[in-house]
Specification:
The protein is an alpha+beta fold. The protein contains 13 helices and 21 strands. The structure holds dihydroflavine-adenine dinucleotide (FDA). The site of dihydroflavine-adenine dinucleotide (FDA) has 39 residues, from helix 1, strand 2, helix 2 and helix 13.
Length: about 400
């Protein structure tokens, strides 16, 4: 058992994911005695599996409008105090090679492990103590300090940072620790739900899509006023791919999503124009020049006899266009936390100072990263939130 003095810290950070590691580096840089507690045997397990093993570590276009929260303004302060350029500078300092894949998404050329290595190197350079395989069991506040129970001993800290993430991917240890701590301190939570997750459908739709398993299409997808232009993938369980993952973070049970399978084409205009010069052309053969043949068959299956263009009335053309460009589907759910890349909701931003991530009602207690009700779009935004929120807490913890 360690001596009493060795169990006293200025800052204890619970969770060595992206946010916790960044916070530890910054608090260490300020000369604070920092302990980073990590339940798993290694740090940054989610970083390691992210971006298909190459970690999409930030996005060139990171900005507040790429985040979902009950308070869309909350993320502004942290994002402006530590920007994507700041993290890119850190990546370059450690000579980690990277590239832009698309839409401003920056990935490692090599492996996500380089990001974890650079964060651990920075932690070591700033004297951060890391206990791996040491989960926090319980925390409480006594006078002006926090008591943290871990593995049979009790640690003390002037500041406590909760960086234990959300509920996504329980298989690698995700859990509700942050929410339990928030509840214990009487802090409000925004109900959590899976985000960036594949969508599931009722039996009839599922059967329809199963025939298309493996087909992808560049679509424009909408839910209420939100729209994304990305790839959609048919799977034997439902719909996936970036377009679906993005819209899933907004979608609410019982409501429809709409899909435009030919977003760049004014189909009504084109079909009407072709009617005269190409009256014998089948509508389906024009569509099959632009979309996978099986997909066209499924989308147009309600048209028993698809006429040649010359025989299409304006009304028929409008109906065909609707079947391709305004496909309305009502998902029945998502594939849940087992498949969701993030958790939407979490510790309410109402209880936190946006400049510091410190709790308004509990001085010295901070929540950062995915544990908080700030969720990024797909594309490196969630890590940017982890870096930014971790950075600011590290300046004040
Ligand atoms: P994170 O979950 O990373 O870390 C929390 C840590 O706390 C974990 O190490 C956990 O073991 C630890 N912990 C939990 N309870 C504890 C306890 N009681 N005591 C001690 N430790 C405890 N984002 C992005 O921007 N680009 C990308 O490429 C991807 N790709 C991606 C792929 C997949 C498959 C997933 C699941 C997610 C992504 N993400 C992503 C999302 C991104 O990984 C996520 O938003 C961040 O990792 C969140 O960082 P945090 O540090 O907040 O939590």
């Amino acid at each position: 058992m360690a001596s009493e003095e060795s169990r006293k810290f200025d800052v204890v950070i619970i969770g060595a994911g992206a946010a916790g590691l960044m916070c530890a580096i910054e608090a260490g840089r300020r000369g604070r005695k920092v302990l980073l507690l990590e339940k798993a045997e290694k740090c940054g397990k989610k970083i390691l599996i992210s971006g298909g093993g190459r970690c999409n570590f930030t996005n060139l276009f990171a900005a507040p409008d790429k985040f979902i929260s009950d308070n869309p303004h909350f993320c502004k302060s942290a994002l402006s105090q530590y920007t994507q350029s700041d993290f890119i500078a850190l990546v370059e300092k450690h000579r980690v090679a990277y590239h832009e894949k698309k839409l401003g998404q920056l990935f490692c050329d090599g492996s996500a492990s380089e990001i974890v290595a650079l964060l651990e190197t920075e932690c070591a350079a700033h004297g951060v103590i890391i206990w791996r395989g040491s989960g926090a069991d319980k925390v409480e506040k006594e006078d002006d300090h926090f008591l943290i129970a871990t593995g049979g001993q009790v640690l003390s800290a002037k500041s406590l940072v909760v960086a234990t993430g959300g509920l996504s991917i329980p298989k690698i240890g995700a859990n509700d620790f942050a929410y339990r701590v928030a509840k214990a301190f009487g802090l409000a939570l925004v109900p959590a739900r899976p985000g960036l997750a594949p969508l599931t459908f009722e039996a009839a739709d599922k059967k329809r899509f199963a025939r298309l398993t493996g087909i992808s299409a560049d679509v424009s997808i909408g839910y209420e006023k939100t729209r994304f232009r990305e790839n959609l993938l048919f799977t034997h369980r439902g719909l996936s791919g970036p377009a679906i993952l993005q819209i899933s973070s907004f979608w609410e049970l019982g409501k429809p999503i709409t899909i435009d399978f030919l977003p760049d084409i004014d189909l009504e205009h084109i079909l009407k124009e072709k009617r005269q010069p190409q009256p014998r052309t089948k509508v389906s053969s024009y569509l099959k020049d632009h979309l996978a043949s099986r997909l066209v068959d499924v989308l147009l299956e309600e048209f028993v006899d698809l006429p040649e263009l010359g025989n299409c009335s304006d009304k028929t053309i409008r109906e065909i266009v609707k079947s391709i460009k305004l496909v309305k589907l009502v998902p029945v759910g998502t594939e849940g936390y087992a498949k969701a890349e993030v958790t939407v909701g979490g510790v309410s931003t109402e209880v936190l100072h946006s400049k510091t991530m410190e709790c308004r009602s509990v001085p010295g207690l901070f929540f950062i990263g995915e544990a908080v009700d700030v969720t990024g779009f797909l594309g490196g935004y969630n890590f940017q939130w982890a870096w930014s929120s971790g950075y600011v807490a590290g300046q004040y913890a």
